[in-house]
Every structure is written in C-alpha cells, then in structure tokens.
Amino acid sequence: MMESILIATDGSEAALAAERYGVSLAKRLRARVVGLTVIEERWSQLLRANASGVPSPPLEPVEAFLRSRAEAALRRLGDLSRSHGVDCNTDTLRGIADDRIVERAHNTDLTVIGRDGISAPSRSALIGSTADGVLRKSTKPVIVVPRGAEAGGGIVLGFDGSPGSRIAAKVGIECAKRLGQMLHVFVDSKDKGRAVTRFDEMRRMLSPSELTIREVSSTLGRPDVKIVDAARASGSGLIAIGAFGRNRINEYFIGSNSASVVRSSPVAVLLAR
After folding, report:
1. Dist CA 210 CA 196 (whole Å)
2. Average pLDDT, whole number, for the chain?
3. Tell me, which fold does domain 155-272 have in CATH?
4. Which CATH architecture has domain 4-145?
C-alpha cells in the first residue's frame, strides 16, 4: 500500500517536473508527501580547502545562499501540494544528496526524483548524478521523472520474469488498480516458450483483480527501445520495470536495459527492487 511518497527537489526547473508528477500521483493515490532537499556540504568543503595557500572566501554568504535556495525549493513544493489538497511535510538535510535521500526513503513507500538536476544545463550526461546515485543505492521503488512528463494515462510493465520485474509487477498492478488505468504488459518474445511462460505468470498474478490489461510483445529490436515505444504508442504516463534484469552481475549497478529506459524515456519510469 502506497501511503507516503518522498519527493526530492533541488529547486531546479528539472526538479519541478518531479514535484508536479509526485504531487499529482499522491493526490490520486490519496498518499501524503514528504518533501526533501539536501544542502550539499561539498560546496562548503571545497571553499574551506587550502589551495596552494589561497585563503578561503567568507563562507557566511555561501551558507546563507544555500539555505535560502533550500527554503525556496521546499516552499514551492509545499505550495503545490496545498493547491492540490495533498498533505505535505518538508525537511532540509545536509550531506551528500543521494545518500540523504536514500536514508530518508526508508521511512516512505516510494521516491520520486527528477532525471536531471540543477547542473543539467552545464553537463553532457543523460541522467543526473544524484538520480544515478539514488537508483543504485535505494532499496525502495523509485520513479524517475524527465522534463515534460505528466502523470496520467496507462502503465507499461516490462516483465522478464526476474525478481525485480516481479516486484515491479506488484507495484504496477497496485498503481493501475488504484488509479483506474490500463496495464500494458510488455514481454520480449524472441524466445516463444519463455514469452508464453511469462504471460502465464502475469495472468496468475492478475487473476484476483478486475484490472484491464493489454498484452504486448515484440520479436524484433532491443527490449529497452520497444518498451519505450510501447509507452509512446499507448499514451501511458508510467513505465514500471525491475532495476535488474535476469543477467545482473552486481547489485550496486542497475541493469543495462533498465538504465537505457531511464535515459531515453519521455515518460516517468518506476524502477523496483
């Protein structure tokens, strides 16, 4: 049961997409929001470092700026939540952003975070470092929201029979039922026998529910690309997949298909583990 949603924000425009998505989802699920922003201590540590005898600049203005920015970010999220009638509590922590977010996520059911961060305009990576760290370290489901993504529409479930995809299936089924949306179950069908087995497993998981589902399969192309294509074609607002595939090597990293979906999807992606 999803009763609490952690929304992490740094106040950037990219984070605004996560705020809007998370608050809209919380309203529809009747969940409460926990808003969090983290003041990165690395900036202060960098300025305190003695570089070749160059004295550090005054730190008070820097600290004041970081506090003001954090307060503004949470104020925006609080105002947005109240405008939607969603209960929201906010907090500011200090430290490494992804570590603090993961720690706080232990007390909530779901984390929502923007795919990009405040430094997005000046970097070339396809996913923010904080989002990447949260995805690698979190033990709870995480929704990654790209710019422009909106909550609403159906849910595409990428199912490969792995433990992670089974967890994603449970979360996806719960969300689809509570949101009254169709569930599109995607299975890579290059191996016909395995595809039949996976669809059978999903039908057993769905048998007690009255959920409307649509089975989608593909024998051509890369599964990660086809999952995103299925979301586009169906007008879905969420892709649910396991954080790891069947060939995972190390639990510190997310699977290659999962990582590719997160990087390329125009809609929000839920990764479950």
Report:
1. 21
2. 86
3. Rossmann fold (3.40.50)
4. 3-Layer(aba) Sandwich (3.40)
